Amino acid sequence: MVRTGPDLAAFSRWVRLVLKTMKSQHGWGITRVATESGVARSTITLWRDADWSKGPPTRSSVERFCKNLKLKPEAPFAFMGWVLAPRETTAAAGAAAVTEESELVRRIRLMELALDQPRITPERRRDLERTLNQLHGLLDVTWDTELEDELRREA
What we know:
The chain is an all-alpha fold. Helix content is 68%, strand content 0%. The radius of gyration is 20 Å and the shape is elongated. Mean pLDDT is 77; it is low at 140-144. It comes from Glycomyces paridis.
C-alpha cells in the first residue's frame, strides 16, 4: 500500500495563514491566539516556524486549536494525513458526510465480497485489490460482520 507522510510544510503555511487572518480580523497576536485556542504559545510558534524538533503536531492539539478558534479542521487534517470521522465534520456537512461515508464503506465491502467470487477474472481481481489497498490507506475501515451478512444476502 502506498502511503505518504504528513505534509508538515503545508501545515506550517496553514498556521501562518491562520495567524495572519487572526491578526487582520481580530487584531490578535500569537499570545492572544494561544489564549483563545487553548494551545500553548510555544507550540503555535513551533508550528508556525516549521520546527518539528519536539515532534509533529498532535491530533488533539490541532483539534483544540480548530475548535476553539472556530476553524474548519479539513485542511490541517488533510495536511497531516488524518481522516475526519463523520462526527468531526462541520454541522452543515455532517449529515451528507455520514451518508457519503456510509455509501463509500458499503461499496468497499462490496468490492471485498467480489474478491471471493469464483468467476472474477485475474485482471479484475488485481484492479479491485489495488483500489482496496488505496482506500484502506485513506480510511480506517473495520469489518462489520452484520453488514457482511446483509451484503451477502443482497448479492
